[in-house]
Amino acid sequence: MAQLNEIIHQPARLRIMAVLVSLDSDLQPSFNYLKDLLELTDGNLGAHLRKLEEAGYIEICKTFINNKPHTYVEATSLGRRAFAEHVAALQDILQTNGHLANDNKKDS
Amino acid sequence: MNISPEEAQEALAVIQQTSDRIRKGHGYNGYYLMIWGVVWFVGFMVNQFLQSNLAVVGWTWGGLVLAAFVGCTVLGVNQGKYVRSQMGPRTGFFYFALIVFTALWYILLMPQNTKQGVVFFISIIMFGGVIVGILNRTLSTVIGSVSVTILALAGYYLLPAYFYLWEAIFGGLAMFVIGLVLRFWRWR
Predict the structure, then answer these.
(1) Is the overall model pTM greater than 0.80, yes or no?
(2) What residues of chain B have any CB closer than 8 angstroms to a CB in chain A?
(3) How many domains does chain A have?
(4) Whole-angstrom Cα distance, residue A78 to residue A17?
(5) What CATH number does the domain containing A13 carry?
């Protein structure tokens, strides 16, 4: 049975990882784009990214474009696997409690 | 770590909403396909119905391809504000080199007629699509490129009189519709 991931489960980090794994694997969103999209402050986003980076789930790439610093973020393969396992664990919880079955009945 | 089924459902809903938003906002491949779909559709329609007027055909294709390159560049620059692509620039250079080499092979091999030349161009550019699809690990690009090649060959051999119309519909229009789907369809 898949295990829940405490680092990923935090709401802001869950959304960050959802963004990163939803993009094609060769695409890296910029820090500012993530900040606007997730409606987080610089400090808040930075702290969550550091936490994910420490766990090895993301890589932060800093670069200069026209002498201006730019930060891009991407999910590592470890991060993608951890996120997939976390999603599987969430689905397991629902299945064992019959929530998905009820939802399907409602949909049909 | 333990959470309730309600919390699990809430977390999954957040993931789904975020993924939907990203996929909807980043259907750039759809835009590229739509642009080239319009080029193929208009270009081949002109080929089909004004083929006696070579100057019109030539200028139309020249103008369309130039406009498409400008459009793709604008899209690429706009995309770059939000996301950086590792493969994007390399793919662009690859296609540029492929087009230059295709033009060279065209001059060296001199196809017997315009239709044969068109199939020659399509097959080589689609061969490029297969290579890019393999390198990017996007099966849909490989399948799409092979399908376009097979359709072009089918039109060339089976319906030579309507070949350009065939390409406008099964090449251009199909590309445009696939682009629309990629851009606006919410994958579940």
Answers:
(1) no
(2) 1-3, 5, 8-9, 11-12, 14-15, 18-19, 21-23, 26, 81-88, 136-138
(3) 1
(4) 12
(5) 1.10.10.10
